[in-house]
Structures are given as C-alpha cells and as structure tokens.
Amino acid sequence: MINEIDMFMNYLEYEKGYSEKTFKSYNNDMIQFYRFLMGEFNINDDNYYDIDVEIINDDVAVNSITKDEITGFVEFCYDKGLKKSSISRKIACIKSFFKFLYNNDFISKNPAINIHFPRTAKRVPKFLYYNKIKELLDFELKQFSDFRDRALLELFYSTGARVSEIASANIKDMNLENDTLKVLGKGSVERIVFLTTEASKWMKEYMDRRTIKFGRISEPLIVNNNGQRITERGIFYIVNRRSRMAGIEESVSPHTLRHSFATELMNQGADIRAIQEMLGHKNLTTTQIYTHTTKDRLQRVYNKYHPHSKENHK
Asked: Among this protein's residues, is 281 annotated catalytic?
C-alpha cells in the first residue's frame, strides 16, 4: 500500500495540482488511514476495530481492504472526537484514493464507492450486553415482517456473520437439521456458521410464514416485504429500527451484533482460534482484539464489586 499511496500523492500534486495545504492534509489522512489498517491504534486504545487486511512483507495488501475497514476508520475518527468537517475530508481523500486505484487497474473493485459522508455524530455501540440483546428481541409479533425481523436478529446474534454474508445467503445454504448456514465471506471464502436452538426455531417459523405469504421462493434466504432478496441497506434499516423500538438510545448496526456475538463467546471462555474461524478472520491478530475488550470488562466488574479493589478501598 505504501507504493500506491506514493503514486496517489504524486497524482494529486503533479496532475491534479492540489494546493500545498490540501496536499499536506490528504497526505496526513493517508498516513493515518495506513496506520489504522496496520492496527497501531488498537494497541493502546480503549476502543477496538475489526481490521482484517492481509499484511505482506510488513505492508498492507491494498486489494484486501474492504468497505468494513473503511467504515471502521470513520468510526475511529468519531471516537477520537474529530469534527465532521475533518471526517468528511478524510472520507473524500479515501474515496479519491480508491477511485485512483480502480481507474488505473490496481484494484478490481472499489470498496469506497458506497461510503457516505457523515450526517450526525450519533455513535454506534461496540457491542450489546446480553440484557440489551433480550430487549432488542422482545417485540410483538403480528405480521410477516415481525417474524422475519425476529429470525434475522436471531440469525445475526447466533452466527456472528457479516451483513453482506446474510444478504447474499440462499435457502440451499441453510441446513436446519444440522443447525448450520454456509456463508460466502471475504475473498469469496466459504465457511460454516452455526444456529442456536432459538435461531433455528425462528428461522423455521419465518420460512413457514414466508411460504404462506409468497409461495415457494427458491433463491434468497432473507426477503423484503415484496418477496425479493433483501439488500444490505434494508438489513441495516431493520436492525436500527428494532433497536429504536427497544428503547436502545444509541444506533445499533448488524456489525454491533457481530461484535456482541464474539465478545460473549470470549467472555464465556471460547477458544480464540475457534472464534477466528467462526468470524471468518484471516488474521488471528484481528480476533485478539476481543481479548482486550473482555479483560477491560472484567477489570471494571472486579473494581466495582471486589471489596479490596482500589476503587472500593479508597
């Protein structure tokens, strides 16, 4: 990625003729983005970010960067308290960078094409505690969309899958006898994820009601209210809407449920390499982020309740 950044900066300076001030700002933005992808900010930061890029010869493989990493960087900028104007400039810089790479055939797909500029500074929680998950799932079931949404939320929390993986899943990929689902992850790598008893129960209920409403549908696993394959945007809308209905103050995304899945497994003592496989992480270092968050969580519980902790011994 270092070479690609150098070529991009040369392009801005000599072909686009950017001013010295703008050039320096974009250069700093690219350096910060690169350091983020290398995981430097996960070491001493209270927050954690799901970075899963390939590192080859101590450099980021630019074709392994996806929309998830770019979104994570925007989230990082919010966590640092940057102004919306600064975040907007960084997004503009990154979008220009990937457009340059795509137009010059350095990458086959532009991961920044659907990255949007910030509208509000509302934060997305990193994960939900189990009591919040129960609140999220506790809504009245009246019509088809209610049963579909319940099954969808159960599916996310059960599998820890990415939103793109759920949106692209087909009926044939799910085996309710074995409680498994085959998903297509990053790099077109297939993996098997698992359904809890609750998730399997609600998926069966959803499938039955879907057949009654739309008849037999051969392809998409999750459909919208018109019986067509649901989009990633549609899934985001459902998760966010149900979180607001549950009275959860902060916005909740499908990625929040993925984080919640991994954090709860780690808290319950699951093997980190097993979690790596279930999340579809290429690098173990990405999964190790969850060990930091669970240790912090345990430390807070210890400090709050142990009579001899520093907090209670003042």
From this structure: yes
| Of 258, 259, 273, 282, catalytic | 258
Residue 308 confidence (pLDDT)? 63
Q: Which residues pair with 59 in a beta bridge?
A: 56
- Alpha-carbon torsion, ordered 292, 296, 301, 304, to 10 deg: 170
Helical segments of the chain, H only: 2-10, 20-37, 67-79, 84-103, 130-137, 144-159, 163-168, 197-214, 232-245, 254-267, 272-279, 284-287, 289-305
Instruction: Respond yes or no: is residue 258 known to be catalytic.
Output: yes
Neighbours of 244 (CB within 10 A): 12
pLDDT tens track for 275-287: 889 998 887 877 7
The one catalytic residue in 186, 191, 201, 282 is: 186
Regarding pTM above 0.70, the answer is no
- Which residue from 99, 97, 93, 109 is spatially nearest to 29, judged by alpha carbons? 93
> Please, what's the b/e burial string for 169-206 (b: 16 or more CB within 10 A of its CB; e: otherwise)?
beeebbeeeebebebbbbeeeeeebebeeebbebbeeb
Active-site residue among 95, 132, 150, 162? Answer: 162
Where do we find the tokens 């459902």?
238
